[in-house]
Automatic annotation (TrEMBL):
GO process annotations (BP): DNA repair
Matches recorded under InterPro entries: DNA/RNA_pol_sf, SulA_CellDiv_inhibitor, UmuC
The entry's keywords: DNA damage
This protein's record includes keyword DNA damage: yes
UmuC domain ranges (all copies): 7-159
Annotated organism of origin: Acidisarcina polymorpha
UniProt xrefs under PANTHER family: BLR3025 PROTEIN (PTHR35369:SF2), BLR3025 PROTEIN-RELATED (PTHR35369)
Name under which the protein is recorded: DNA polymerase-like protein
Length: 239
């Protein structure tokens, strides 16, 4: 029993390129806002190699004249998300959308779609966790969405791993802490002020966070410190 997390980076760009195959070999970027204040919200690898970054103005991004720009379309993104959701439902009746156009991609700063799939009861159909993750990823590739898929013993661990590791990841309960340890604390879904506090303390990754004395951590940042420390070792809060 476990959870598969699906993470699809640069989702607005993929939603567009699914419909415009002619642009796939070019440097492309999705922009949002009114002229002349449009900002880059998503791009492909070719555009990244040319120096584009999230939040860059279109004027800054267009210095080479070689980037194709496309206005952001929530309709395209919602339609694309429906396709991804339907593909995920082929592997479990219990699928949850975590980050999408409707919730501004969970305000992660990166326009990636994320879904959570409950693996319970699927072993006889799809095999072990690695096989399950591989088959989900292959199904998404067939509908032209490149994704990271991670299977872990609980939901939050699988989401952390899918956001952080490319391709397919599968970890057992015994190995999840080791796999999470090198990830930056910024991978945790928590307030920016808390991340800033951890940075001031010199805490760079989840392994260092897990090693802090629990009592001292709680005394400084409250019960959320205990919660974050549990997440850092791959455990969720008890119900």
């Amino acid at each position: 029993m476990g959870y598969a997390a699906i993470y699809i980076p640069e989702f607005p760009t993929l939603a567009w390129l699914r419909l415009d195959k002619g642009a796939r070999t070019r440097a492309v970027a999705v922009i949002d806002g009114k002229p002349p204040l449009e900002k880059v919200v998503s791009f492909n690898r070719a555009a990244k190699e040319m120096g584009l970054s999230h939040g860059m103005s279109k004027v800054q991004a267009d210095t080479s004249g070689r980037v194709i720009f496309h206005p952001r379309s929530l309709h395209e993104e919602k339609e694309a998300l429906d396709l991804v959701f339907q593909a995920a439902e082929g592997f479990s009746p219990r699928v949850q959308i975590i980050a999408s156009p409707l919730n501004e991609y969970a305000k992660t700063g990166c326009p990636a779609a994320a879904l959570l799939v409950d693996q319970s009861g699927t072993e006889t159909l799809f095999g072990d966790g690695r096989s399950y993750a591989t088959k989900i990823r292959e199904a998404l590739q067939e509908i032209e969405f490149h994704s990271n898929v991670a299977v872990a013993p609980n939901a939050e661990a699988s989401l952390l791993l899918a956001r952080s590791y490319s391709g397919v990841t599968h970890v057992s309960e015994r190995d999840v802490e080791r796999k999470l340890a090198p990830l930056p604390v910024s991978a945790l879904r928590t307030e920016m002020s808390t991340l800033a506090t951890l940075k001031r303390w010199g805490i760079r990754n989840l392994g260092e966070l897990a090693a802090l004395p629990e009592t001292a951590l709680i005394s400084r940042i409250g019960q959320q410190g205990k919660r974050l420390q549990r997440l850092a070792v791959g455990r969720e809060d008890p119900p």
